[in-house]
Amino acid sequence: MEADIYAALEPLGHPTLWGGFDDFGPGEAFPRITIQRISNATGYSLKSRADVETARIQVNVYSDDADQVFALARQVSQTLTDYRGGSVIRCKEISRRDGTTPSGGDVIRLQMLDIQVRYRA
After folding, report:
1. Strand 49-63 relative to strand 88-103: parallel, antiparallel, unpaired?
2. Do residues 68 and 33 make contact, with C-beta atoms less than 8 angstroms apart?
3. Spatial distance between the Cα atoms of 65 and 37, rounded to a whole number of angstroms
4. Reduced to 3 states, what is the DSSP secondary structure of residue 3?
5. What is the CA radius of gyration of the chain?
6. Which domains does the chain have, with CATH numbers?
7. What is the DSSP letter of 11?
8. 3 state SS of 118
9. pLDDT tens for residues 33-90?
């Protein structure tokens, strides 16, 4: 699932990685996208583990320009909710929050998207 989500976001043309803001190298361009798995639910049948799982991931969009954050967050949401491929059956945006992150005195705008991903294990 991780590789499929990453592959879906890569064509947006912005630095994207699994991890946190601090995992980017120094001087990495804005806007930036990070992805983290928040939770995972495994289904079970009476006999064994089911082959379909549901995960909640958080996709953070960072930029030093507020308009750029809002536009890219909409684009990320649209890309993921439209995406079907590889192991991913469907994605659904659950919530979106605004925020900022400190970065050496600069104000970095942030939108955090909670996405539910249903996928084949």
Report:
1. unpaired
2. no
3. 26
4. helix
5. 15
6. 2-120 (3.30.2000.30)
7. G
8. strand
9. 999 999 988 777 667 777 889 999 999 999 989 999 999 999 999 999 999 999 999 9
